[in-house]
Amino acid sequence: MAPESSLTDSSPLVGSTPAGYGTLTIDTSVDPLSSSVSSVRLSGYCGSPWRVIGYHLVVWMMAGIPLLLFRWKPVWGVRLRLRPCNLARAETLVIEIRDKEDNSWQLYTVQVQTEAVSEGSLELPAQDLEDGRSQAAVGAVPEGAWKDTAQFCRSEEARALRYYLFRGQRYVWIESQQAFRQVSLLDHGRTCDNIHRSCSGLSLQDQTVRKTIYGPNVIGVPVKSYPQLLVDEALNPYYGFQAFSIGLWLADHYYSYALCIFLISTTSICLSLYKTRKQSETLRDMVRLSARVCVCRPGGEEEWVDSSELVPGDCLVLPQEGGLVPCDAALVAGECVVNESSLTGESVPVLKTALPEGPEPYCPETHRRHTLFCGTLVLQARAFVGPRVLAVVTRTGFCTAKGGLVSSILHPRPINFKFYKHSMKFVAALSVLALLGTVYSIFILHRNQVPLHEIVIRALDLVTVVVPPALPAAMTVCTLYAQSRLRSQGIFCIHPLRINLGGKLQLVCFDKTGTLTEDGLDVMGVVPLKGQAFLPLVPEPRRLPVGPLLRALATCHALSRLQDTHVGDPMDLKMVESTGWVLEEGPAADSAFGTQVLAVMKPPPQEPQLQGMEEPPVPVSILSRFPFSSALRRMNVVVAWPGAAQPEAYIKGSPELVAGLCKPETVPPDFAQTLQSYTAAGYRVVALAGKPLPVTPSLEAAQQLTRDAMERELSLLGLLVMRNLLKPQTTAVIQALRRTRIRTVMVTGDNLQTAVTVAQGCGMVGPQEHLIIIHAIPPERGQPASLELLPLESSAAVNGAKDPDQAASYTTEPDPRSSHLALSGSTFGVLMKHFPKLLPKVLVQGTVFARMAPEQKTELVCELQKLQYCVGMCGDGANDCGALKAADVGISLSQAEASVVSPFTSSMASIECVPVVIREGRCSLDTSFSVFKYMALYSLTQFISVLILYTINTNLGDVQFLAIDLVITTTVAVLMSRTGPALVLGRARPPGALLSVPVLSSLLLQVTLVAGVQLGGYFLTVAQPWFVPLNKTVPAPDNLPNYENTVVFSLSSFQYLILAAAVSKGAPFRRPIYTNVPFLVALALLGSILVGLLLVPGPLQGPLALRTIADTCFKLLLLGLVAFNLVGAFMLESVLDRCLPACLRRLRPRRASKKRFKQLERELAEQPWLPPTTPMR
Fold first, then answer.
1. Among the listed residues 172, 175, 180, the one whose alpha carbon sits nearest the alpha carbon of residue 153
2. Tens digits of per-residue pLDDT, 206-246?
3. Mean pLDDT, rounded, for 1126-1151
4. For the purposes of burial, counting CB atoms within 10 Å of the CB of 574, is it exposed (0-12), middle (13-18) or buried (19 or more)?
5. Cα dist from 865 to 328, 545, 607, 765, 868, whole Å
6. Active site residue 511
7. Pick the CATH number of 520-605+616-724 from 2.30.29.30, 3.50.50.60, 3.40.1110.10, 3.10.105.10
8. CB 859 within 8 A of CB 880
9. Which among 128, 252, 511, 965 is annotated as catalytic?
10. In the CATH hierarchy, which fold is given to the domain comprising 292-410?
C-alpha cells in the first residue's frame, strides 16, 4: 500500500508513488478533519471497458441489488467498475482517512472535475511574475521549487484545470509536481510585506487566474430537493429493512399491521425530510453572504463586484459605516471595530489595526488582531494614513474561518464511543440469534407439514421479530429529552450525540478570567516608581501627578468610541475609567490636536490632582498602537501632546515580560518580591513602561515605527494592580467535581502565581495538598534543556529574579507522587519539544497551566486526549476557541443562543453549567443503556412467544402484533426516557461498555425468567380439563382464536410492562421512577387494561382474537404468574446491582485499567520520578 503521511508531514503535496496512490497533508487552520485524523491517503481510478461490462453483468444477474449496496458502500462500486491508475489520469479518487483514536479507516469517493481553460488564460505578464503576487495564486514555494506552476495549463497536453472538492475544500492538480494540493496552502509562507504589496489590487487577468484556481467565494450549503431527500431516506438501511418487513407481512396476510407500519414509516420519512430540509435551509440562510464590494485595481481605479467574485489577493475598500465581512482579509490601512460574536461567542467588540510590515510569515491566528474574519460584522471603519480603509483578501469560501466552522457542522468529527460500537455488535448478535431461530422454525414448520412458501414467510418473519426496527428511533429519544432539559436551563447543544459523552468526562479544563473569576476587573490601585524604589499603592489612579505613568494608564489601551459609548476589553475600560480621562475619536479628536490622530484622551474637567503638581493636564493624542496579543502578552502605543518635542512609547503587559524589556537600572531590586506579594494574594498585576522616541510627533512618523523599535531601552513606570474576584458559584462547583473524582485543571493566560492563588482559593488545590511549580530551562550556550521543581512554600525565596514563572535556582527535590503540578506556557513548550517522554507524567499531575497561548490550550487538550482522558473544556469562547473545539465536550459561556465554537453554549455566566451537562450526560447514557436493554428484551420476549406458537403451528394475530408493538412497547419506550437526572452528582460513573458482564447477565436472566413464565403458562393451560387443542391442520392466522395464543399473548403483554419498569431504575444517575409521572400513568393504565382484558374480556376481545376463558381460578393463577414475574424481575435487577460486582471481584482478580493515564498514575504511585538533567528523547 501507499505510504501514509501524518499531519506533521513536511510535504504539502499529494504524491503519486507508487502509481495510483498518494498522501495528503491537511491544512489544520481551516480543515475540521485535522483534530481527529492521523493521515489521509488517495487512490486513483479510471475507466475500464471490461470492468464496466462485468459491473453491469453483476448488477443484472443479481436483479439490481448491488446498486443498493454500492449506494451504501460507494467504494465497492468504484473498485469493481474502475481500475487503479496514476493520479495524473484518475477520473475518480478514493480518499482513505485514518482516525487518530482507534486507527480505523473511513473511505470516501470523489470525482475529479475538469474545467476548460481558454488559450493563454493562465499566462501572466512578466511584471506580475516579478513581484511574486501571481505566483502566490498558485502556490509559489521557497527555493523556486516549482515557479512555473502559474502556467501549468499551458502545455500542449493539458488545456484544462483538474481539481476535486472534498468537504468544501478544493484540491487542484499541479502537473509539474504530479500532485494535488489544497488551495488554502497555495500561498502558505506569504509574508506581511507580500500582503502590503498587494494593496494596489489585482488586474483583471490576474483575478481571472486566481478565480480559476480558487473557485468562487461562496460557502455553499447543499439543500437537496424533496425527491432527492426521499431517495436518500428511503434507501437508508433502516427503511430498507422496514420495506422488506412490510412486504413480508403483506405476503403473510398481516394487512392491518403492515398498513399501520407503512403509515408510521411514511409519516416518519415525511417528518425527517421536512426537518432535514429545514435544517439545511436554516444553515444556508445563516451562512449566505452576498454583497457588492469595492475592490482596488492597479492604477488607482476602483471597481464594484459581487462578493462571490473575490479571490485571495484582491484589495477591499471598507466603508466607514462597516458591514459584514465576506471573506478573511488582512487589514493593511486604517482601523476597524469588529463584532466577532458569531465566531467566538465573545460579545465585546474588538479593535483591529493595520498589519505591520515585515518579513514575518503571515498567519491568520498569529495576526488575528490584524485580520478580519469572514462573517464578522465591522461596526466602524476609520482611515488614518490615506483616505481609505483597505484590507487584502487572504482566504475565500470554505478556506475561511467561517467556512471551516460550517464544514465542521456539515461534517462533524466522528465520535469514538464504545457504547455505539457495542450496540452494533449486539444487533449483530441478535441477527445470529434470528438465524438460529429461523433454522428451528424451518424444522418445526416442516415437521408440521406446512407448505414451503408458508415456511419461507414464517422463517423470514422471525427475523423482523428478533431485530427491533424501532431501536434507532428509541435511542434518539433519549438524547432529545436530555437536549430539551438542557435548553430549559439555558444550555444549548448543537451536537446531541455529545450529550452522552458528557456522562463519561474524567477531566475538565477551565479558563480563569471570565470563567472561574468575574469577567470584569476592579482597579485596586497603582504602584508608582521613583528611582529604583516602589512607592506605596495609590488607590485612585486619577490622583496621580501628571507624568508618564498617568499618561500610560490613560492611553495604553485599544478602546474605541461607538455611538457615544466606550467599547473594548473590560480591563482597559476599568483602567481608563480609574483615570477619569475621556476618549475622543474622528474629527473631534483631530481638531483637538490640530492634525490627524488615531484618538485623543482628554483629562477630566475640574478634577483635583495631587497638591504640588508641576504642570496642568493636557490632552494626549494616540498616534500608533499595537493591540494586545495573547501570544506576545503585551500591547504598545505611541502618544504625543501639545508642546511635546518628541512622542513617547508606552507598553503594557505581563510584569515579567515588561521588566525584561526595560533597562536593568530602572527595575527595582525588590521587583519580584513586590510582584509576588500581590499575585500571591490573587491580584492581577500589569506592568507599564515607556520611553521617548527620537522621531517627530506626527501620525505618519509614528505609523512607520516597528514594535521592536518601541520596545528597546524602556524605563519601568509602575504596576497596575487589579482585583479579579472568584465568581460565587466557582468554589462549590470545583469542590463538587473533585468529590466525584473528576479532575479539574486551570488553563489560563494569566500570571502563574495569580493562577496558583486562584486554584487554591477555589479548591482545585486543597489546603492540605502539596503544589509544586515545575520549571523547564530551554537549551542555551551549549547546555541541554533541564527541569527543576519548586515547592510552593519556597516560592517566596525568589530573590532578584525577574520572572517567578521562570525561576531556575531551586534545588529542592519534593516527591511529586501526591502533588499538584503548576507550570507556565514556556515550560509546557519546552516539555513538548525536549521532554516528550516525561510530558505525560506531568500532564497526569498538572493542575495549573498559566501563561498559556491560545494554541497551547488546544495542544494541552489534545495531549490529554492522547492519554485517553475524556476531556471537557469550559471557557468564554474568546481565546479558547481551539480548545473548545478540540475537547470531547466543549462548553462556551456566552449569551448567544448557540455558537459554532463548541457543542454546548451556556447562557449561565458561571461554571454551574458543567455539573448540569455531566448529570444530563450520565442520565442520558444510563437511559440509553436502559432503553437498549428494554428493546432487546422486548424483541427476545416476542421471539420466545412466536417460537412457542410456531411449535404448535399458530402465531400471534395481526391486531395482537399492533397492540404489542405500537400501543404497549412504543408508549413505554418513549416515556421511560423522560426520567430526569439525579439532583446530586455522585462518584459512580455509568458503564461505557454494553457488552459487559452486568448487562449480559441481566439480559440472560431476564430472558430466562420470561421464557419460564410463558412456558409455565402454556403447560398450565394444556393441563386444564376444559382445554381444547387447536386444529394444527389449519395455519395461522386462520386458527385464531385458541387457548394457547390467548395465554401466551396475555402473559407476554404483562411482561413488556414489567421489563420496562424493571430496567428503569433511578439512582445513582437518574431520579426515582416515581418522578416520571407520565411513565407511571402509562404503566398503570396499560396494566389495568390488561388485567381487565384477562378477567372480564370486553369489546377488545374480538379484534384481538382472544378465546374466552371461563375458569376464574385459572385466570387468577395467570395473574399469580404475572406477580411472580414482577417480583422476580425486580429482584434480579436488585441482586445483580448489589451482589454481582462483589462476586466478580472475588472470582477474578481486578484487572488493571488499560487507559494510558491510569497506567501512569500506577507508575507514579509505585515509583516517584525526578527531573532529569538532560533532555529525554
1. 175
2. 888 888 888 899 888 888 888 888 887 777 777 777 788 88
3. 80
4. middle
5. 31, 53, 56, 22, 5
6. yes
7. 3.40.1110.10
8. no
9. 511
10. 2.70.150
